């Protein structure tokens, strides 16, 4: 099992703010860790597969300001096929097979409500095996995978509901 200590978590938090922040700047902001140690820690986090360095697109800056989750009910035996087909659409930013009331869960980014309507009714609903879709608009995003960090509760802190 891979674990993170508080220094790793602090480094990751700073890199989440600015992924291009230099090791020297990270060290300066941490105050008690030398730049060489920060660089070694970052390389270790990458080598262990805990973090990856990459560009994250801001869909809203490109005009894709409408977010929605679409839950898809699928005919038995076709869940993976439908999920893989849905994942290929450029409007889909996330796709997963699910359990429970829906079989496939996708997140969609589009430029307008009309585009969302057309995508769901004209493209998703025509995938062989799709029985029904349920769409939920997401007017506010508070947190996403690009800022998620496990084990964030440290000594003295408590999670709040």
Explain how this protein is built:
The protein contains five helices and four strands; from the N terminus they run αααβαββαβ. The protein has 161 residues and is α+β, with helices and mostly antiparallel strands. It has two domains: 6-55, Arc Repressor Mutant, subunit A (Orthogonal Bundle), CATH 1.10.10.10; 59-137, 2-Layer Sandwich (Alpha-Beta Plaits), CATH 3.30.70. Strands 2-3-1-4 form a four-stranded antiparallel β-sheet. The longest helix has 13 residues, at 35-47. It starts with 5 loop residues before the first helix and ends in a 24-residue tail after the last strand. The model is unreliable at 153-160 (pLDDT under 50).
Task: Please give a quick description of this structure.
With 161 residues, the chain is an alpha+beta fold.
List keywords for this structure.
161 residues; Arc Repressor Mutant, subunit A; Alpha-Beta Plaits; 2 domains; four-stranded antiparallel beta sheet; elongated; disordered C terminus
Q: Please work out how many helical segments DSSP would assign.
A: 5
Named at the architecture level, the CATH assignment of the largest domain is 2-Layer Sandwich
The residue ranges in which pLDDT falls below 50 over 5 or more consecutive positions are: 153-160
Query: What is the typical, i.e. mean, pLDDT?
Result: 90
Q: How many whole angstroms does the radius of gyration measure?
A: 20 Å
Helix proportion: 25-40%
Q: How far apart, in Å, are the first and last alpha carbons?
A: 27 Å
Shape: elongated
Largest sheet: 4 strands, antiparallel
């Amino acid at each position: 099992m891979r674990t993170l200590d508080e220094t790793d978590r602090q480094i990751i938090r700073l890199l989440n703010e600015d992924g291009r922040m230099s090791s020297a700047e990270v060290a300066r902001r941490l105050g008690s860790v030398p730049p060489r140690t920060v660089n070694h820690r970052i390389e270790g986090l990458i080598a262990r597969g805990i973090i990856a360095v990459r560009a994250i697109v801001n869909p809203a800056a490109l005009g894709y300001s409408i977010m929605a989750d679409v839950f898809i009910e699928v005919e038995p035996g076709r869940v993976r096929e439908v999920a893989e087909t849905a994942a290929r659409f450029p409007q889909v930013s996330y796709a997963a097979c699910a359990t429970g009331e829906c079989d496939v869960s996708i997140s969609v980014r589009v430029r307008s409500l009309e585009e969302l309507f057309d995508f769901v009714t004209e493209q998703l609903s025509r995938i062989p095996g799709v029985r029904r879709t349920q769409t939920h608009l997401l007017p506010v995003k508070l947190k996403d995978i690009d800022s998620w960090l496990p084990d964030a509760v440290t000594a003295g802190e408590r999670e709040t509901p």
